[in-house]
Amino acid sequence: MKRNVLMAAALLVGMMCQAQTAAVFKPYRDTKLRLPSVPLLVSDPYFSIWSPYDRLSDGVTKHWTDADKPLSGIVRVDGKSYRFMGEEQRPVLETILPMSDEQTWEAQYTRTKPVGEWQKMDYDARGWTNGNAAFGSSEMSHVGTQWGGDNTDIYIRRTFNIDDKLDLSKDWYLRYSHDDVFELYINGRQVVSTGETWKDGVALKLTEEMKKMLRRGKNVIAAHCHNTTGGAYVDFGLYRDMAKASVPMEVAKQKSVNVLATSSYYTFACGPVALDVVFTAPQLINNLDLLSTPINYISYRVHSLDKKLHNVQLYVATTPEIAVNEPSQPTVSTLLSKNGINYVKAGTIDQPICAKKGDAICIDWGYAYLAGIEGKDNQISLGDCGEMKQTFVAQGTLLPSSKQCISRKLSDMPAMAYAHNFGEVGKEGKSGYLMVGYDDIYSLEYMYDRRMAYWKHDGKVDILQAFENLRDNYDTIMDQCRALDKQIYDDAFNAGGEKYAEICSGAYRQVISAHKLFTDNQGHLLFFSKENNSNGCVNTVDLTYPSAPLFLVYNPDLEKAMMTSIFEYSRSGRWTKPFAAHDLGTYPIANGQVYGGDMPLEEAGNMLTLAASISKIEGNTDYVKQYWDLLTTWTDYLVENGQDPTNQLCTDDFAGHWAHNANLSVKAIMGIAGYSEMARMQGLPDVADKYAAIAQKMAAKWESMAAEGDHYRLAFDRADTWSQKYNMIWDKMWKLNLFPNGAMNKEVNYYLGKQNAYGLPLDCRKDYTKSDWVMWTAAMASDKATFERFVDPLYKYINETSSRVPISDWHDTVTAKMMAFKARSVIGGYWMKVLMDRELQKK
Fold first, then answer.
1. Measured on CA atoms in the order 164, 169, 175, 181, is the torsion positive or negative?
2. Looking at the predicted structure, is the pLDDT value of residue 245 above 90?
3. Where are the alpha helices (DSSP H) in 249-384?
4. Alpha carbon of 623 to those of 223, 452, 544, 602: distances in Å?
5. Among the ranges given (3-7, 518-522, 695-699), the one the predictor scored with the smallest mean pLDDT
6. CB 804 within 8 A of CB 36
């Protein structure tokens, strides 16, 4: 009896939660900005699914690394099906030549440039070395033959035979991974040429002309890769598609997409029925439990367009591929129910918790969950992908669910499917929602201790309880998300206009989702970034610095949570240098710095400036007092070394070492000034006056050393140069007026004449820029109209770039193409104008 009462209560809660308001499906503002990739399901660097297309139905949804993480969606109207999400047909690839994640393979290779047509079948490769794939540097996966080093090359020939499997009526695919510049040939004819980039697991469908390059008998695939710097890698294989014919259906007509801070809103026409779909990540910046909970909502609504009744069903599915790093990893999927929610759960069989570290990798431990509220209209099922979809298209229902499915290769992975039968739908419409989440068990390793995510509260909350919380509080949470959407949009609009508001709205989830929130075993709140697509470092100080404006505006505790571990690392004695560390390891292993080259002035200046900013925003020095000895040591280092920097890296390390860097000198000066400001707040006037005088003297000398007519130099000893002096922003924000002769206005006016179609270059050396720094530079402008002159080209870049990835902060201002870097936290720097206005308005 008691159990029946509990079940009835759970079902009642479920029905109440399904009664959504119309506001759920209406964005606070319509947005015109076409993001290069739209956030769908995001939480952290591992749980991260995006749509890199203009239309949600244009292709497979992806992780930011470009790995496939498939979501599919269909609406069935009066027996006719419309695909609104995902690709038409996913290939089922039969291996002809395996990549090294499936099986070790052997090839001939040489490290020196061959003479003659080395790509062709009949080339004499005597003198080449035999080696096992993959070919690359030690930190990469499945490396059988070591190769690496800056500006080095490798040439590879893989010969093989094709006999009865050469059926050119089938689709054929090349899969390859490379780092960096890569070219590949089939029997002497080039089919791949990448330029300088790195990719993992690319699946290239061969055109009819490419397929004709294959022949019965002996063939060769030849590849060349050039490594510019850092990691090196080559792996490739050949596959044939064995998928059954796709289920015929129409493509839903996408009418709109609007992206705001917490939600992406899509609207479709599915014949006579309209479909609204909203993807919401409830990453409320002042609610740490929700910010860190790895569960997203997919809300949906259908209504008649022709005032007639229509019979409607909805289908959403994914696969265990969202829980693997490599498609070949064996998985286990299960069906379960608890407290009024049905789940399909999937993860790898091996569960290698925190076993892999690096940059372009996906999680392969923990479990993905697809969750639907129990009810007569909702169905959850686990079973064969093709048959699941066919059954829905034919009948509007799912296959009877299997209790468990084990897959040992990609083609065996089952569908994790959800269906909602609306029955008869009229103009008033009907709605519902499902949830998708990811329980990583342990999130990362910090100082040799595996730590759980914040929302778990050291194991007191489990993932099923978290799902129940999001179900029970759906209406409240969605209202709070809408309120945050409004706040983010309005604050940016008031500071910089409509385009700026749309940029910030589109950037918010990217910034938050590049972090992981947890506590250490002493209770310190920690918020670690990952250097996505830049080297994989964890909690890098020169990511913490550019991303700071978002957190300084809305929750300084999160900024502290990035800094505390760096302070504690030094205080523990494990880091003994007189400046701050660069990082704490390679994600998800945070046991100490791994970066090979220090950034002494950069990181010391960053930590001091951020510490001063927090103190000013909070009106006290409570946070920094405990680390005062460290801050003093770092300040004295800046005093001694910051006026004219030696040959060293700054945060723009891709530009290489550079001596006498004028912008780096500005950073040192502002760090010293920040220390003075904190000392004054602590009641240490003598200390404050001493370092204020030092900063003022250094700034005056800087102005005379860097001055060059109508602007200031990139480096003190380089005539006819210029660069963005974005570090000067704090002089304006703190109202110190350290830099004389109108240095800041002079620089801003000069930059206006240096802009290209897609933004202001970083400096005079190249056409590329960093969009986070452009936003800092723009915030130095004396008025809103001038600020918008810098924002307009960046809006154009984001809107038009052909690099369909989560916003790349490093791009070419002439071509609008990404240089590298994507999905990084640094675009939190876009909020600098909001921060500036807020601080300047204080008395």
1. positive
2. no
3. 288-292
4. 55, 25, 17, 21
5. 3-7
6. yes
Residue 233: left (phi > 0), alpha (psi -120 to 50), or beta? beta
Q: How many other CB atoms sit within 10 Å of the CB of residue 316?
A: 23
- The length of the chain, given as a count of residues: 843
- The CA-atom distances, in angstroms, between 553 and each of 616, 664, 733, 834 are 12, 25, 13, 7
Task: Write the CB contacts of 256 (distance below 8 Å, at least 6 apart in sequence).
Answer: 30, 265, 266, 267
**The one-letter amino acid at 310:** H
- How many Å is the maximal CA-CA distance in the chain? 87
Which is it for strands 80-85 and 250-251: parallel, antiparallel or unpaired? parallel
Element (H, E) at 787: helix 784-800
At residue 648, the pLDDT reads: 82
Supply the pLDDT for residue 372. Answer: 97
Q: Is the pLDDT of residue 454 over 70?
A: yes
> Cis ω on the peptide bond leading into residue 134 (within 30° of 0)?
yes
Tokens representing 187 are: 């029997």
- Which tokens is 97 given? 């030549």
Strand partners, 275: 268, 302
Judged against a pLDDT cut of 70, whether residue 284 lies above it is answered with yes
**How far does CA 701 lie from the centroid of its chain?**
41
Q: Is 75 exposed, middle or buried (0-12, 13-18, 19+ CB in 10 A)?
A: buried
638-655 in b/e burial notation, b at 16+ Cβ within 10 A? bbebbbbbeebbbbbbbb
- Please answer whether residues 422 and 312 qualify as being in contact, where contact means their C-beta atoms are separated by less than 8 angstroms: yes
Burial of 786 (0-12, 13-18, 19+ CB in 10 A): middle
Q: What is the mean pLDDT of residues 257-265?
A: 98
pLDDT one-digit tens code per residue, 765-823: 999 999 999 999 999 999 999 999 999 999 999 999 999 999 999 999 999 999 989 99
Which residue's entry shows tokens 């270059």? 761
Strand partners, 159: 220
pLDDT digits (tens, 9 = 90+) for 307-317: 999 999 999 99
Is residue 300 a contact partner of residue 315, using CB atoms and an 8 Å limit? no
Query: What is the chain's mean pLDDT, rounded?
Result: 94
DSSP per position, 139-170: TSTT-SEE---TTEEEEEEEEEEESTT--TTS
Helices 832-840 and 474-496 cross at an angle (nearest 10°) of: 80
* 136 CB-near residues (< 8 Å, 6+ apart): 143, 145, 146, 147, 148, 179, 231, 232, 233, 234, 235
CA dihedral (674, 679, 681, 685) positive or negative: negative
Calculate the CA 745 to chain-centre distance: 34
Q: Burial-class residue 161 by CB neighbours within 10 Å (0-12, 13-18, 19+).
A: exposed
Tokens of 573: 């004695």
Taking alpha carbons only, the member of 486, 727, 499 closest to residue 613 is 727
748, HSE (Cβ side, Cα atoms, 13 Å): 24
- Helix axis angle, 771-778 relative to 784-800, nearest 10°? 160
Q: 519 has which bridge partners? A: 525
Q: Outline where 341-473 has alpha helix (H).
A: 385-395, 463-472
pLDDT in tens, 650-673: 777 777 777 999 999 999 999 999
Mutual angle of helices 832-840 and 771-778, in 10-degree steps: 20
Q: Given this model, what pLDDT does residue 281 score?
A: 98
Q: What is the DSSP letter of 67?
A: -
Beta carbons within 10 angstroms of residue 460's beta carbon: 9
Give CA–CA dist 696/643, Å, rounded: 12
Beta carbons within 10 angstroms of residue 735's beta carbon: 9
Report DSSP state, residue 399.
Answer: P
